[in-house]
Amino acid sequence: MLRKWMDEDKRMTAKEAVERFISDGDAMVIGNCLYGTPYALLHEVIRQGKKDLTVFQQGGIDELDLLILGKCVSKLLIAYNFRIAGERIETVLERALRRGEVEIEDYSNYTLLAMLQAGAMGYPFLPVMSGIRESDVCRVESFCAGQKFGEVECPFTGEKVTVVKGRNPDVAVVHVQRADRSGNAQLWGALINTKWACLASDRVIVSCEQIVDEEVVRSSPHLTVVPSFRVCAVVEEPWGAHPSELLGFYDYDMVYRSLLFMQTMSEEGGNAFMDEWVYGTEDRQSYLQHYADRFGLKYLNELKAKPYLSVPADYGASWRHAWDEKDVSFNFQMTRGEFLQALDDKGGFVNG
């Protein structure tokens, strides 16, 4: 059964993936932060009007602002959210907090990651550095009151150890460089929280720049951050992380991002941005076409990465099978039938 799930073709559009695997009220973790942000998937979440989401994000730039403008979010667990221009302006998040539209729970980068790590490993909690107790991050609680930080006694020293609760979000959304059709997803560059976000979550939606053959994935297994049996959907979405960076494909689009920041300084500007770039585009392809119509392709093409290939690593082995063409084991020096008979004779245990 597991093998069937691993081999299943999970390719679909962003629209299909979000419709099938994200529901109102879900806890959603955004894989990665600052780098490789899954904007194409998040735009689709907004277009479909998903509501009452609890969102985990270690560091937001503008993706959280977009989700708030789309009225998708009710609760946020974050380490920080980027802002510019000091006290002269009020950000989208600040406006939402002032109006009581969003609740927020502050963590540090590591403690938020540790929650996902604990959840991925099946632990009810995980120790974190005790210095966090000296900060308001630990002292001030919101909707996680009583479930944010705790203390246990170390069985070795008797000292009090600060712990965070293990978390298992309903769904993770992540963008990577490549994946195969069954969902083995490969990411290189800054990994941030991607591995633990995916492994902690009940469902995973992967978007990628390229869908490649399984053999490509097998030739570089160390790049796989989430295995296929944890993935529900695979979406081939070139430029799916724009305007963030994705190593080997494109740089940050700071001009576009500056436009976004400037427009969202006011509520009217933020709504106009959403109407133009999210609601006014039906998918990532039409988003890119709109970008070309507005700015031309010259600047977008200048963002494309120049090749800088890593040194190949040899993953070769003898490729000798456990049983040769005559059904004889090199290691046991017996045929498969003799081996099975020995297991029966010895009660399932063979003494070399």
Report on the structure:
This protein is an alpha/beta fold and 352 residues long. Helix content is 33%, strand content 20%. It is built from 14 helices and 14 strands. The strands form three sheets. Strands 1, 2, 3, 4, 8, 9, 10, 11 and 12 form a nine-stranded mixed beta sheet that branches. Strands 5-7-6 form a three-stranded antiparallel beta sheet, covered by helices on one side. The longest helix has 13 residues, at 109-121. The two termini are 33 Å apart. The model has no long low-confidence stretch (mean pLDDT 93).
Helix and strand topology:
Layout: H1 2-7, H2 14-21, E1 27-30, H3 39-47, E2 53-60, H4 63-69, E3 73-81, H5 92-98, E4 103-106, H6 109-121, E5 125-127, H7 136-139, E6 149-153, E7 160-165, E8 171-179, E9 185-186, H8 194-200, E10 203-211, H9 214-218, E11 224-226, E12 233-236, H10 254-263, H11 267-277, H12 284-295, H13 297-302, E13 328-329, E14 334-335, H14 336-345
Helix pairs in contact: 6-8
Short description:
The protein has 352 residues and is an alpha/beta fold. It is 33% helix and 20% strand. α6 crosses α8.
Keywords for this structure?
nine-stranded mixed sheet, 2 domains, single chain, 352 residues, alpha/beta, 33% helix, Glutaconate Coenzyme A-transferase, 14 helices, 14 strands, three-stranded antiparallel sheet
